Amino acid sequence: MISYITQHLETSDLTQCQRIFHGRGHAYQSFEHINVDWFSPVIVITLYQAVDQQWLAEQVDALSQLAAFQAKCLSIQVQHRYQKYAPIEVLWGEPITATIVEEHGLNYHIQLGKSQNLGLFLDMANGRKWLLDNGKDKNILNLFAYTCAFSIVGIAGGAKQVINIDMAKAALAKGRENHKLNKQDLSRVKFEGVDIFKSYGRLKKHGPYDILICDPPSFQKGSVDIERDYKKIIRRIPILVKPKADLLLCLNSPDLDESFLLDEVARECPDCIFQEKISNPTVFVEAERGKGLKVLRFKYLP
Predict the structure, then answer these.
(1) pTM reported for the whole predicted model
(2) Is residue 264 within 8 Å of 235, Cβ to Cβ?
């Protein structure tokens, strides 16, 4: 694993948060249960099953000695995703529980040990870059906003307004803090802590939109089953957006490939015309096509 990380670091800018090893793509035999992320100044090793503790200690020692991290890395921590509440423990260095990281010149709060997700999904970096480059003067609807990273890049890119929708009000509160961290104008940002599937009236009231971002979870007990529910959003696109609007539709499920999303759009809103697939960062190597994050851009052309 260390050799793959060393190779990746040869072309990496460690001022930016990033994945430095993606075992979950099943492209590296024997390491399918491991990811390693850089949230400066912390390396986070995420384990999806238990590992030999001596082996883990050896990996931590090797990481701490990599020249690329000298004077940059202050802590190496492991998250046990296979355990209840996905606890994090410090294996080397300082007991850091929070940090601020940078991506595309923007900053984000990262919390270590508070929840399973740390505050920023690194595989979506290229989707955020697309919005940073294409959001100028646009009215943007950000569905399943989480901590509002798309909103941050939208405002940074000159968006007229961004509407963040998520039923998790605590996540939206973190999104508000991310906007404040970047000293952005909150008069151009709205936060709606509502259930998307029960609140289409709330979604409409700030529209129609020039850009719609939809990055749903694959499954949340009692609220979202994306295989069942994505069509409910897609069929309402005509009441939410303007003609020629851009749609960034995302799919995280490893069990559903991009053909699922293409078929859902063709059936539920055929006026949405596929434009391009936005690739994931190169470190997210997948042994089997379609298992990782899918980000597809459509244009609404009624």
Answers:
(1) 0.95
(2) no
Quick one: pLDDT at residue 282? 96
Can you name the residues that pair with 45 across neighbouring β-strands?
36, 78
CA distance 40 to 73: 7
Instruction: Name every residue whose Cβ is closer than 8 Å to that of residue 140 and which is 6 or more positions away in sequence.
Output: 131, 150, 151, 154, 159, 161, 162, 163, 209, 210, 211, 212, 213
Can you tell me which residue has the tokens 């605590």? Answer: 170
Q: What pLDDT score does 18 carry? A: 98
> DSSP states of 222-243 as a string?
TTEEHHHHHHHHHTTHHHHEEE
CB 74 within 8 A of CB 94: yes
Per DSSP bridges, beta strands 139-143 and 294-300 are: unpaired
At 185-200, the pLDDT tens digits run 999 999 999 999 888 8
Backbone phi and psi for residue 222, each to the nearest 5 degrees, phi listed first: 85, -5
- Write down how long the chain is: 302
Helical spans, DSSP H, in the chain? 2-9, 53-65, 125-134, 149-156, 169-181, 200-204, 226-234, 237-240, 258-268
Helix, strand, coil content of the chain in percent (nearest 5): 30, 30, 40
User: What do you get for the CA distance between the two ends of the chain, in Å?
Assistant: 50
User: Which amino acid, one-letter code, is at 41?
Assistant: P
Q: In this model, does residue 111 exceed pLDDT 90?
A: yes
